[in-house]
Amino acid sequence: MIVRTLEEIIDTENNVVADTWNSRRFLLKKDGVGFSLHDTIMRAGTETTMWYKNHIEAVYCIEGEGELEDLSNGRVYSLKPGTLYTLNGHEKHRVRSKTDLRMICVFNPPCTGREVHNQDGAYPLVEEEL
């Protein structure tokens, strides 16, 4: 059984901070559960373009307001608490945060925790021993 709290993650390497977001990584590949789980804050007033070419991501919004744009077709969706989106087609997308957005994100294959967005906004596949 794995039990973790947000307080345990805050001052560790599993609290990854970037220009427009902060990702607190609860589960990673090394945990051996087949997916990774992140508690992510997208900062108010920011825009982030992402394209997970190597991962399927499911995102559940639990706080805040913003919008999601599917860059393949220009369609825009409202983000608010209770909204889920899944990038099952590896869609290139943009998140615009009106307020801080708090999102629970699940990745498959699991992230190792060392990934950073490349120039395309993607996480490369990073191999790591369990």
Automatic annotation (TrEMBL):
Example of a GO MF term: ectoine synthase activity
Pfam families: Ectoine_synth (PF06339)
InterPro entries: Ectoine_synth, RmlC-like_jellyroll, RmlC_Cupin_sf
Superkingdom of origin: Bacteria
Reaction catalysis annotation: (2S)-4-acetamido-2-aminobutanoate = L-ectoine + H2O
GO BP, one annotated term: ectoine biosynthetic process
Pathway the protein takes part in: Amine and polyamine biosynthesis; ectoine biosynthesis; L-ectoine from L-aspartate 4-semialdehyde: step 3/3
EC number: 4.2.1.108
Presence of keyword Lyase: yes
Keywords: Lyase
Xref: NCBIfam families: PRK13290.1 (NF009806)
PANTHER family listed in its UniProt record: L-ECTOINE SYNTHASE, PTHR39289
Its job: Catalyzes the circularization of gamma-N-acetyl-alpha,gamma-diaminobutyric acid (ADABA) to ectoine (1,4,5,6-tetrahydro-2-methyl-4-pyrimidine carboxylic acid), which is an excellent osmoprotectant.
Stated family: Belongs to the ectoine synthase family.
Protein name: L-ectoine synthase
Species per Swiss-Prot/TrEMBL record: Collibacillus ludicampi
